[in-house]
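User: My advisor asked me to double-check a structure prediction for Conserved protein before group meeting. I don't want to rely on an old file, so could you generate it fresh from this sequence?
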Amino acid sequence: MEDGIENTSPFNGNGESGFFKLPDREILESFRLQKVFPDSPFGFPSGHVALTTALWGGASRVFNSRTAGRLAPMVVLLMAFSRMYLGRHFLGDVIGGAALGLTLLVVFTYFLKSPLKDDFFEKENFKLAFRQKNLFFYSAMFAVPVVFVSLSLISGEVAGFFLGTNTAYLLIIRKGLPEDEGSTGQRALRVFITLMMFGLSALVLDAGFGIIGIAGYPDDTLIEFLKSFIPAFTIWISVSICIKLGLYNIASTEQIE
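Assistant: Sure, here is a fresh prediction for Conserved protein from the sequence you gave:
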């Protein structure tokens, strides 16, 4: 049992019969009536699998890395396995998450091959102006995730990650993108700072909302959103710190304040 709900993981002692097991009648009935089932760990599609598929697939495209391309399927399978192992998702949930991630990956691949790729790195296209390209990028980066989460096509967690990342990118590019140059040590330190800021913020939020939960506040979509939005937003803070520390080529970028 977890939060009063039976753990239906196929690895909870039920053997192979539990692998394709459906939720209990009470849960199915609550879904059918579109009722909120308190503290339910179930959800379609799996946001973890969707993000893993999109991010690892996207990384292999961006860096043109065969290694990342070969590792991506294994990482996605491990993520899907772990979500079912923990009883957080059913097989259909992780398949749906993989399908969503692949859809995002296909869109991203077409984007990389289109003229929009170069436009996406132009500071001019992210100013507050009623220009076609500006409106397109703002809509794609902010309006689309909001619409998707309002229609329950994605979870608050997924929407928070995308909106946090996009907000950080917007703040960075409006001051000028720093060039990805420097020694191996500088690049490694930039990655370390980014991961540290992301991880620390996630830990602090988990602890903070855990205390709030004990005080009786519900863990709703807004909290899920904030728990993913804020860590993703720290990308902007990390870039600012790296510039202050001289880990980017200051001569080729404008100061981020």
